[in-house]
Amino acid sequence: MMKKTTSPWTWVPTLYFAEGLPNVLVTGLAPVMYMQMGLSDAELGLYTGWLALPWVIKPLWSPFVDLLKTKRWWILLMQLLIGASLAGIAFTIPTAVWFQCSMAFFFIMAFASATHDISADGFYMIELDEHRQTMFVGIRNTFYRLAVIFGNGVLVSLAGVLQVLFRNRIAYTWSLLFYGVAGLFIALWLYHGMRLPRPAGDQQAEGTFKEVADGLVEMFTKFFTKFPLKETVAVMLFLLLYRFPEALLNTMTKTFLMRPNSSGGLGLSPQEFGLANGTVGLVGLLLGGIIGGILVSRDGMKRWLWPMVCAITLPDVVYIYLSYTLTSDILTVSLCLFIEQFGYGLGFTVLTLYMLYYSSGRFKTSHYAICTGISYLGLMLPGMLSGYIKDAVGYKTFFIIVMACCVVTFAVTALLRIDPKFGMKRRDDEAA
To answer: What class, spelled out in words, does domain 207-432 have in CATH?
Structure first.
């Protein structure tokens, strides 16, 4: 009797929607909520910056996810924990200790989400052969991005609608919203409990904690010694500082778009913010990423390196324009954000491909995870200080400082050594 197989269409889209949603709730929705709840920009940058820590350090415990239980077990456990954390946020928002408790639940959710990333990606590679992995990579990326649009666009807009319906009861509306998202995640957990397949290869790894720890030490040693010291230092600086301007902008752009004109912001409503930043901006990001991949595939990364570095930095000038004009025209704001995010999508291609380039060889998957962790650290640390800088100088001067910091991106990129043919589609691939 043949074993009944489960179509990837029944679980890949929902699994990667579930992977993307907690990330955007932590990095995108939390700052908007805390801003509306009364936190200053300095407080927002500092406290929400800490929430990125689990993604920075997840390579440290990823081997132990392989050692204990199965990937399927970890996926379901983390989805249940994320759902419970969301319910905890919803429950504590109306209380007197709302900030302390909600931050604790966000932190739990961030750790659960980072662990879910590890187990979901591992499960994907175990269940699907190489052909189907390639076939569904576009589907998984699409649904991950749809989760981002859902979080930054739909949920923020829904928060605005609820605030109108319930006469601007901020805490109450955010509590309702998080109860709804908690319900959605519990539904995903129940669905995946029924639909996720049980691949024969998804088994608890054989080995002791000591063996795993020794392997972890070897993996980190290889990562930092695969190239000469000078080149390794250059790579580390690139991973840390390539997105330095973005690290400063990350949270402050959200507050700038929604703070009132009297505070130097544009005063967008949550609905307008959801449209301009969470929808139009993200469409620009997706298009930029697609076009960036096509250009590099055709001509190689070295050919497009500097145009893409310009693309990820120079469009930041739109925030200087917006901060001086304080335009309320949603079309103008949306166009500016589209341009900035399109450029970012193009420029991010450089970082992604270089991490693949550096990670090649033994421990490829683990080394890529370390690269992403270092990159996240480069976002986290400047982001924690960005609010203090902005509060000290105001939005206009802050955005000028960010533009000046684009020099850092150019400087660390100049340190790189890249094979001219890296990223270029090979002729034999085209023939195949």
So the answer is: mainly alpha
